[in-house]
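Re-run with default settings, no changes from the original entry. Doing this only to confirm the output is reproducible before filing.
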Amino acid sequence: MSFLTVRGCETYYEWITTSAGDRTDRPVLVFLHGWGGSARYWRSTAEALSDRYDCLIYDLRGFGRSKIVAGDEPTAYSLKSYGDDLADLLQQLQVDRVSVIAHSMGCSIATYLLETWCDRIDRCILTCGGVFKFNALIFGVFYQFGQLVINFRPPWFYRLPGMDFLVMQRFLHRPIPASDRQEFIEDYLGATSEAAIGTLLSVANAQTCTDISTQIKNLKIPTLVLSCDRDTIVPASLGRAAAALNPSLDYQVLKKVGHFPMLEDAENFLAAVLSFLGTTDQNPT
């Protein structure tokens, strides 16, 4: 297990390559996971792409294996701050250029990185992301409900028979292996309350909605917005709205898939990813 101190957080990261974890001269592809999860659900995708890329997976501050330190300011859990975390991680690892593949909340974090690192990013894939129109009432209910859910996470409850299936049912359209469901539950229970609530507060924020829309409008690097037609967490209409902001963006919808296409339909998800990344995505010499 590898850790680096990133802006005060002991951050877990891992290189997935065809060279026993050692970096090669291949281009770098960095993966961002979503709320409540960890890099673990990206592992199978990274392994499938490791013959073309050196794949960097990592856990966001306060999620998975990346543990916060006492004294973190609330601003540490803003989506912009998470983008700054990634920029610092890449600098410490001496990575000069990357392509990015993000999922769910990770897509919003990626837009902040794209704003500050645009000259170092070759391509970007935003999976199950989109733009939201701020509504104070709806976002307020969303945030209050999220707090209740986060504050009620007794491990015994989630160990009840079939609970992993019931919890994941809202996120999925197709079944995934029990081991993947269990990993998601473990990551959700292990997320710190500070990070889980702090990111919800950042998401349910008028400024965040404005920022993300502006950043997507200004994107100049090749970007694919990849939605799923059975996604009830971030419906395809929100991905379509994001793509409509910038005519240079590619937009694609995967059919009969929910919120985790990399697990529900790995074959077609990888086909879409590889088609977009192409064979010419190489670091400049």
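The CA atoms of residues 59 and 94 lie 18 Å apart. The longest strand covers residues 9-16.
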